[in-house]
Design goal:
Largest sheet: 5 strands, antiparallel
Strand order of the largest sheet: 1-2-3-5-4
CATH architecture: 2-Layer Sandwich
Oligomer: single chain
CATH class: Alpha Beta
Number of domains: 1
Distance between the termini: 14 Å
Shape: globular
Radius of gyration: 16 Å
CATH topology: HIT family, subunit A
Order of helices and strands: EEEHEHEHH
Strand content: 15-25%
CATH superfamily: HIT-like
Length: 171
Amino acid sequence: MSRTLLLHPSGSVELPAKVLCDRADGGHLMVNPPRPVWERTALDADELAAWSLLVAATGQAMLETLPQLRDGCLNYWEAGNWALNDLAAPVGPKQPQRDRRVHLHVFGRSRDARHPDWAWGESPRFPTFADSDRWSAQFAPLSAGECDALVERTRTLLLTRYRIDTMPRPA
């Protein structure tokens, strides 16, 4: 199960249960919109703008607080597709509007990435759904200290740079 790091009216930041990029290779966070929707176009203009600011603040916080991202960058990947796989629970055919929940993955990209699927200057490579559990088991999540620093910096950026002042504490 994913761990919520920051719960905010503009969405939430999570440490995913299924880590897709090792912390040493740049790390992986997930940013959810303010309410569950199947597609970003289902958000109203204010929700979409607020979610975008949360994504930007999260990305900037990763770049500023994670030493492994020194001289690195980020990839943002909107997702929700694996939920539609016939092998995903509940097993069987899925309907996008009913079963998909859009979220955005933020992947740190380190110049010193060791895993070949995260090689610098290359597109990341992801497995098929059937291989995803085995593949992700090799990756370590961001540490508790890294998560704490990211959350504090994200909060500060939301308040100062983006002027969003509603800041509840994490769940």
